[in-house]
Specification:
The structure holds 2 protein chains of 2 kinds. Chain A folds into 2 domains: 47 residues; 209 residues, MetI-like fold (Orthogonal Bundle). By secondary structure, chain A is an all-alpha fold. In chain A, helix 5 packs parallel to helix 8, helix 5 crosses helix 11 and helix 8 packs antiparallel against helix 10. Chain B has a domain of 66 residues. Chain B has 9 helices and 9 strands. Chain B is globular. The chains are: A mainly alpha, B alpha/beta. The interface between A and B is medium-sized, with 21 and 24 residues.
Chain lengths: 276, 266
Amino acid sequence: MTDFAKSEADLRATPPTSGDRSGWIVAARALFLLAILAIWQGAAAAGLVDPAFVSTPVGVAQSLWQLFKDGEILPNLGTTLIEIMIAFVLSVVFGIASAVFLDRNDWLNRIVSPFLTAFNSMPRIALGPLFILWFGIGIASKVVLAFSLGYFIMLLSTLGGLKNVDRDLLLMSRLFGASELRLFRHVRLPWALPSIFAGLKLTLIYCSAGAVIGEMIAAQSGLGLLVQTFSGRFDVAGVMALILIVAFMVMVLTSLMDMTERHLLRWSKGSTDVPG
Amino acid sequence: MSLNASAGEAAKIVRPVDISVRQLAVSFGQAHPALSGVDLNVREGEFVALIGASGCGKTTLLNVIAGLVPAAGGTLTIRNRPPAAGRSDICYLLARDALLPWRSVTGNVVYGLELSGVAREERERRAAAYVDKVGLKDYREFYPSKLSQGMRQRVSLARAFAVGRPIYLMDEPFSALDSQTKLLLHDQLLALWESSRATVVFVTHDIGEAITLADRVIVMAKKGTGVVEEINVDLPRPRSAEALQADARYHDLYRRTWTSLKASTQ
């Protein structure tokens, strides 16, 4: 029996519990990361790639250390974090509120939906220079750019969730005498929750991209500004270190959301015995 | 044909009419009306089954009584009031269980009580009692996705009877179940109903189910022109769905209903 077939058979015999597999999965992940770093470092050492263009893991690690040692990074990191958080909160609040309003007022939804699609199809990054022109080189222009990306993602994913709510659940609740407010609290909102969470995670990623790219166009402070400065000096290791910092930040926030999601959506787990 | 109290009932105390339907007509905008000239009286505490071929308008009639579909003509009163959706004296059981997937078995029963404005402590107490009554005590904290179809429908029954309303409207609630599970659910419904003594209108296309449950089986015409025949089910109560399978009277009634149903389609 092949390993694959065997593991399939095991899966059927005893459903995997989170405990017995997570250990070796973490180990496999660490191995995977180490392999990539080793190949990268090895290729540079063997002269297969030019470290001046792709740097090396050790070079990136040194840059990271340097960035935190002089504390140069901290005010910039703060600026970027503030921009991301403001844009994220605004996107979530306005995105969900607009979705709820459009869901309850279908006539309005039918009027504005082509415009929403049009706005969402626009390459907002290309509007970056205009936002700088309109809102200055401070954090406002970055928040607007990030919000212009996040708002539509939040709006469209929430609206999608609200639109496909199970009609039987609504009918049953109405026949039991539920008010519109209760329908929203007990049926529509929980039904849309998986879509809202999917939207939250994408919104965070796009808000981060919006903020950093906005800073790269023109800024007084921020990680994007540093990226621009380091690129100008051909400091490849520095640029990569900064990108790692942003990625790490987004990952930490995403895993916080994942934990909340797993808790809130625990009812949806294990609805079938069939693996996969 | 008189659709009022039958010979068997005349001997009992005549109970007031809960649901009164007179010359009811329903139209969905086509040339041919969905229902026309329908007469029906359902007395307080009576269990009536509506049976008929697909498209005879039995579910439409139920939906008019529930206030979900407007009547185009005739009169219809439920406890002397016109129909309205979401009335606090009517409980409607849908064909599908319509359980909230994010609430446990108990949580779903509590939900019905919550919507009926029952106080918190009373909700918990009554929900626990009804979950127990439908035999799901060991599954109280399970989410619906973990339950079988029959168990889900039992939760739906518990939710409906926990709120204790005077009138129950049921639209083929057991049509998705296998015949074994169906018999089990029939007993459970009968037990819940007998302790509630509510008025029930039960729509089904299953003759056996209609006879097992009802005091009176109403056979509706295929063309939506109302009632073809009504059959009094004088089987003694309490009934057991399984024991009835071996009862000669049950099979006589089955044959009579079958003949009438067959005639209704011609």
